[in-house]
Amino acid sequence: MKKFLYILIPVGVLALVTFRLRSNREATLANIYQYDKREAVTVEADTLKHVSVAAEHFFTGTFEPNREARVSAEVQGRIDAIYVDAGSLVRTGQPLLQLDNALFNLQLQGVDVQLEGLRADVARYTILVQADAVQGVQLEKSLLGLKSAQVQRATLLEQIRKTTIRAPFTGIITAKLSETGTFAAPGIPLLQVTDISQLKFTINVPEADLKVFTPGTSCEVIADAYPDLLFSGEIVMVGSKSNLANSFPVQINVSNTPDLKLKSGMFGRLMLKRAASEQHLVIPASAISGSADQPQVYVITNGKAALQNITISERIGNNAVVAEGLREGDVMVTGGFINLFEGANVTVKN
Questions:
Q1: pTM of the prediction?
Q2: What whole-number distance in Å separates Cα of residue 109 and Cα of residue 115?
Q3: What is the Cα gyration radius of the chain?
Q4: How high is the pLDDT of residue 59?
Q5: What pLDDT was estimated at residue 74?
Q6: Residues of the chain whose pLDDT is less than 50?
Q7: DSSP assignments along 57-122, one per residue
Q8: pLDDT value at residue 100
Q9: pLDDT exceeding 90 applies to what percent of the chain?
Q10: How far apart are the C-alpha atoms of 222 and 268, rounded to whole Å?
């Protein structure tokens, strides 16, 4: 009897749990909304018509310095003095650093003494050769020694000149990478000089828009930091190779203000003016689905939604200009995409 109870009780508990789980599942399914694909989906739609595209178009980009260089020493030595600091304005040829040149000066003094003796030997042997008192070969050796010492002296003067490191061009010290007393060696950057009197403004242009950019064309650039100022620029380079996003770099030379308001790394916009406005089909970018390679939109035909492949010629803000795939008078879905699918019955929200 006990064994029978041991078996009966677990079986009863299991049956009760199974019954409760099944009841809960049925109650849950009853509360879940089951979408019927035969029901009409309420959407927002718009009838397409040609509109005038604005004559101005903007491309975002970044300002870069016209020239930038990291200055290093051509000879090695201890840094005796640094005449500039970060933020200093420098001119072409202005001394920036001074390296220790005491050893070179001592060597120069030794060469000067050697030159003095060689010049005396040349003068003396010249007189003796003219008097046939010595052979001409001795005069030739003295002349060769004099020329060698002169070359040595010129070499030392060049090395002494290189111990004074000068600005390669007019600009601003944007990085100080060394301190007085440290050791300088060829190839080790000591200072960074940046020229921002002219800047390069670089934008990335989609393939479809590349045709409107021509080197030598004038344009206007607006810096985000100074929205009320227009900076004149000239297109100097149109890229020949695209990036991973299939966009091409376009570079514009921009003149800075006298007080150098524009800084390297600032963001801005290029304002491109078209010759005249044209009529195009313009749709909101939010209505586009599909991929970047094949954009699609939903159009309504006979009360049903149908996906339509389109070609976009350009994007203007939050809108896109359609080149192919749509016609004036088409009814396109602009909102209510939840539960929307190819072939769905649709009702346009008033």
A1: 0.59
A2: 10
A3: 41
A4: 87
A5: 92
A6: none
A7: EEEEEEEEEEEEEEEEBSS-EEEEEE---TT-EE-TT-EEEEE--HHHHHHHHHHHHHHHHHHHHH
A8: 94
A9: 43
A10: 5
| Residues contacting residue 84 through CB under 8 Å, at least 6 positions apart | 90, 96, 173, 176, 191
Alpha helices in the chain (DSSP H): 2-31, 102-130, 136-162
Q: Which class for 202: exposed (0-12), middle (13-18), buried (19 or more C-beta within 10 A)?
A: middle
pLDDT reported for residue 35: 55
**Structure tokens belonging to residue 197:** 């009197």
CA distances from residue 53 to 182, 297, 325 in whole angstroms, order as listed: 62, 20, 18
**Which of 190, 172, 154, 28 has its CA nearest to residue 91?**
172
Rounded-to-integer distance, Cα 288 and Cα 285, Å: 6
What's the angle, vertex CA 66, arms to CA 61 and CA 69, rounded to 5?
120
What contacts 345, CB < 8 A, 6 or more positions away? Answer: 38, 39, 40, 41, 303, 304
pLDDT of residue 248: 92
C-alpha 267/C-alpha 263 separation (Å) is 9
The dihedral over CA atoms of 158, 161, 163, 166, expressed in degrees to the nearest 10, equals: -130
Q: Burial of 273 by CB count in 10 Å (0-12 exposed, 13-18 middle, 19+ buried)?
A: exposed
CA distance 120 to 122: 5
Tokens standing for residue 297? 């939109």
